[in-house]
Amino acid sequence: MEENDNKKNLNSGIALLDTSNFEYTVEALEKLANYVIKTELTPLATTSEAISAILTGREVGLPPMVSLRQVYPIQGRSSLGIHAMVGIALQNNITIKIIKDYEQLFVYYKNKNKVSKETVELLGDSAMIVNSEDLKEESMKKLLIEKAKKESKTIIMKVFLNDYHTVVEASRFRKLPNGEIREIFATGEYFYSTAVKAGLVKGKTGAWDVNPKNQMQVRAKSNALQNIADDLMQGMYNTQSTLDFQGKIYDVDDDNIVTKVYSEEELEENTVTDITNYQTK
Description:
The chain has 281 residues and is of the alpha+beta class. 46% of the residues lie in helices and 26% in strands. The protein has twelve helices and nine strands.
């Protein structure tokens, strides 16, 4: 008897999750919303949030189940997950290209003076570019200086900074008022130092602490897409960008989907726990 009931509930759940021919009625919306919240198939917490996500997603062409994972309400405004933004872009023939992916920044020095990349390029083959780390060891430093003198080259020291840079380019074809069709481009970029200055890297277990590379790619992609496809996104911003702007701490899964946003009360509880654990050591 119990086995039959479990099978019946399973079949009922599968039927609810099959939204290929979903009818946007109040009853259908409530049933689906309640089920996905109960089974934790969405990060959303209330029925009203889930229904709002489904209806908002419908406006930008997202099916119900995608909306329940990729549309997130933040203080009364809907936001889009990065996968939803990319999906909408690709459906509308927008090309997305990663130009730089978490590349470490560096500067050049010549005789203790900073020089530009263009200056180094002008030196061409007469420059010997060495990493600053190689010059810390005296024996290596001596060998490099001797080699530079022997080959009549100028030593250019390359110093890596504690900063990283991600750049994404998006492009689409648009019809201009004169009827001409032209390809337009938009660039989105993000610096790790920007996240640090904004207080996003907190040294805890937030998304920026666990996987900054992914977070920077999300920010760069969303910046590019908001510049070139705001009409397709219905003016919605990226979820993580919005949470970052508001200084929220949140978790994301391996698929870059926001799984939890921490409340002030939860953060205070964690802080008290950390202090208590420290004091008992």
